[in-house]
Design goal:
The structure holds two protein chains of two kinds.
Chain A (H helix, E strand, L loop, with lengths): L2 E5 L6 H14 L7 E5 L3 H7 L6 E4 L2 E2 L16 E2 L5 E2 L4 H18 L1
Parallel strand pairs in A: 1-2
Antiparallel strand pairs in A: 1-3, 3-4, 5-6
Chain B lengths: L12 E3 L5 E3 L7 E6 L5 H18 L4 E6 L11 H10 L6 E3 L4 H6 L3 E2 L1 E6 L4 E5 L13 H11 L14 E2 L5
Parallel strand pairs in B: 3-4, 4-5
Antiparallel strand pairs in B: 1-2, 3-7, 6-9, 7-8
Classes of the chains: A alpha+beta, B alpha/beta.
Chain lengths: ~110, ~180
């Protein structure tokens, strides 16, 4: 399983997002999974990565929360929705944990 | 240049989404809250309801809350003047939403992020600058820092915490 966090310096949410990913991995007994980070610095970087906002978390190359149609590629902070409907700059911890769990199961099946 | 606490804040004249025009001065208000915000930032959105509630709760005491969007709409179309008008039409806004299309007001206030909150007294002196409260992710925080500052100004005192670090998305400057 690969986990990559794409970030842009214009958003202060990177550290909290990283912490959330590591906590979720720890809860799932997957602390050995390395979280890679990649800075998106320019509009060209954003276009190349299909980056719709910071942070974007890719699990096995797939966006944890698939981008909605109205989200545009570019350097901005990403708007997530918590399960209770609140707006948040980082994903809901339950969404994160479940996505990691699914990826972990897929990885086990492949072995 | 950053405005010092106690210094006079710049005046401005900006259009709102309803065809009106607003200034930082000449209101007779005992306090004015100027908050730089926008449509697309999760921090601004997370804090929006708390700031709106401050506008409602303090309106009877004559406090004005002026929300200003200064972001570059060319690169961030969700912050265009039309998008601002659409949003106000959809939502219940107890405060005017002003368009700073030239970004001159954001530069004059040295606004950094959305939201960035400035509390001015009746003489337009800056009495508080920073975040609405300590935690965007806790609705119960209730914009307590902003409320504390307003309560101090309205009672003729000094805010106990005149400056905090504004937290949010960087202002999207034109290139």
């Amino acid at each position: 399983m690969t986990v990559e966090l794409l970030w842009w310096e214009g958003c202060p949410s990177t550290e909290r997002a990283l912490q959330a990913v590591r906590e979720a991995l720890s809860e799932l007994g997957l602390s050995d999974v390395e979280v890679h980070t990649r800075e998106i610095e320019t509009d060209d970087d954003a276009r190349e990565a299909g980056f719709v906002g910071s942070p974007t978390i890719l699990i096995d190359g797939e966006d944890l929360v698939p981008a909605a149609s109205q989200e545009t590629i570019g350097l901005s902070c990403r708007v997530y929705r918590r399960r209770d409907g609140r707006v948040s700059p980082i994903p809901d911890p339950d969404d994160l944990r479940e996505a990691l769990e699914r990826a972990s199961r897929r990885a086990e099946v492949k072995r | 240049m950053t405005i010092a606490i106690g210094a006079e804040a710049p005046d401005f004249q900006l259009p709102d989404t309803s065809g009106g025009s607003w200034s930082a001065s000449d209101s007779g208000a005992p306090a004015t809250v100027v908050v730089f915000t926008c449509n697309h930032c999760p921090y601004a959105l997370a804090w929006h309801d708390r700031i709106a509630q401050v506008a409602r709760d303090y309106s009877e005491r004559g406090v004005r809350v002026l929300a200003i969007n200064s972001n570059d709409a060319e690169r961030y179309p969700r912050d265009s003047f039309d998008a601002m008008k659409d949003r106000v039409a959809r939502e219940d806004w107890p405060m005017p939403y002003l368009h700073d299309g030239t970004q001159e007001v954001a530069r004059a206030y040295d606004a950094k992020v959305t939201p960035d909150v400035f509390v001015l007294d009746a003489e337009r002196r800056l009495r508080y600058r920073g975040a609405p409260d300590s935690e965007y992710d806790d609705p119960d925080a209730g914009a307590a820092w902003l409320r504390d500052a307003l309560d101090a100004v309205l009672s003729g005192g000094e805010p106990a915490r005149p400056e905090t670090k504004p937290v949010g998305c960087s202002i999207k400057w034109k290139r």
